[in-house]
Amino acid sequence: MFVSLVSFFMVFLILFSTTAFSLMISTNESTVVPRLKGYYSYDQLTTLLQQLHSQYPTIFTYYSIGKTYEGRDIWVIQLENTQSTKQNKTAVLYIGGMHGNEPLGSETVIYSMKAFTENYTMAYVNQSFTEQIRHIIDNVTLYFIPMINPDGIEAGTRKNSQANQCPFGAALYCGVDLNRNFPYAWDKLDEYPFQYRFGHWNAQTFKDHPIMFLMSKFPTLFFPTTIKYPLGDIEVFVPFLKGGHYRGPAPLSEKETQAIDSFVANHSISLAVDYHTPGEKILFPWYSSRDPSPDDAKLRAIASNLSSINGYELMQGADWYLTAGCIMDYLYTKYNILPFTIELGSLKHPGDFMSKNRIHDICETHILVNLCLAEHALI
Ligand SMILES: [Zn+2]
């Protein structure tokens, strides 16, 4: 709650700055019209995937890696030149829509997937851009999961649609925050319940505020178990903001996190990016510890190249705020993937405030960011 509010008010103080690029995707190729707010719905995404597969069958395939609680498919798009003779190709993974109330992340992944596909066969922008795209798709496999939480996207909620077991759980407290449900450091919430709920606060801040200090000394008194019930995750106030950070009853307890776990386990992925909003930041491990990771220099070098395109601030995830059970530390430790979170834009709910043109500009800028990340897979 505190984190959400701070972020929400902070955004009004941050100046927006993205560079507009010339149009990189065709405007008349698809009959799919994104809905009024400017974002693809789940059904529109599904129709788009069918169209792209029928138009570009040699490079574009897609399949479901699991079903959500409301029965939607979690789509993975695989973009690669299936006729390429290159051996032992590495892969890059692009994720969006983990938090359903942050649809700009999902939209950004969809735009890049569409732009890469269309520009592979025809130079919509220019020949040089097409040659860059071809070089990537001929030598790297690109995976896109634009809606890892399609139920949340449809409902406009941060969490998924798994009912909780607490009173009014199915209505008010429905759902699990998928980005708190991954196995790495999931237990840190038990060990340091206060710190991981108030991640922006450091130890000195607690000492400076007697009430907070007292609460941090007796956390279980103020924050009862969060294993079965989400109430301890400050959910009491959050349903009205369509938020909440409930981590679920166990690591990988959710259909969506299980789906991504088995997908990643069976594919050779070297780099990943997960899109969220807001903050205009590029984050990298660790998120659950303020110590530098063993790959700190490498991560900063890549983040710096990405930042030269979108102008975002780069920092270690935990230096923004501590997070337990997030996908980034898990991908990094379990699968040796170099993962980044990009926090897009400067508003929490861009659909409520942001013009279609601005959404479009951000998506176009990140086509180049995503291309740059893919190029790092070849270095
Ligand atoms: Zn998010």
Describe what this molecule looks like in 3D.
It contains 16 helices and 8 strands. With 379 residues, it is an alpha/beta fold. The protein has a single domain (2-157, 252-376), classed as 3-Layer(aba) Sandwich (Aminopeptidase), CATH 3.40.630.10. Strands 1-2-4-3-5-8-6-7 form an 8-stranded mixed β-sheet, with helices on both faces. Strand 6, helix 12 (296-310) and strand 7 (313-316) form a beta-alpha-beta unit. Zinc ion (ZN) binds at residues 98-99, 102, 276.
SSE diagram, text form:
Layout: H1 2-10, H2 42-55, E1 60-67, E2 73-79, E3 90-95, H3 103-121, H4 127-139, E4 140-145, H5 150-155, H6 188-191, H7 193-197, H8 203-208, H9 210-217, H10 219-222, H11 255-265, E5 269-276, E6 281-284, H12 296-310, E7 313-316, H13 317-320, H14 327-335, E8 338-343, H15 350-353, H16 356-376
Parallel strand pairs: 3-4, 3-5, 5-8, 6-7
Antiparallel strand pairs: 1-2, 2-4, 6-8
Helix pairs in contact: 3-4, 3-16, 12-16
The protein binds zinc ion (ZN).
